Amino acid sequence: MAEKNPKNTPAPEKQMPRNVVSITANKCVAEMCKAKPARAGFCEEHYTWVKEGLLTMDGYKAKDFDKKYHAWMRRKAA
Asked: Is 34 in contact with 44 (CB distance < 8 Å)?
């Protein structure tokens, strides 16, 4: 009976691909932020902003950013 792999090369499914691209984020998704992401692709500060509605999940400011930001600052100061 003949061998299936006569040249002793690794099977195709066991070879590692050479063009692997990392899918993890290298920086925060928010605009102009270069910090390392901590949660959901955002740094700690911007993650809080997303939860408060100041940023969208895409990292852009909300339409009514100024109004929400001032309200958040009042709540935070109290």
From this structure: no
Entry pTM: 0.64
> Residue for token digits 């299936």?
4
Euclidean distance between CA atoms 44 and 12, whole angstroms: 42
Work out the number of other CB atoms within 10 angstroms of the CB of residue 50. 19
* Tokens standing for residue 7: 């040249």
Output the pLDDT for position 26: 84
CA dihedral sign, ordered 7, 12, 15, 17: positive
CA–centroid distance for 7 within its chain: 43
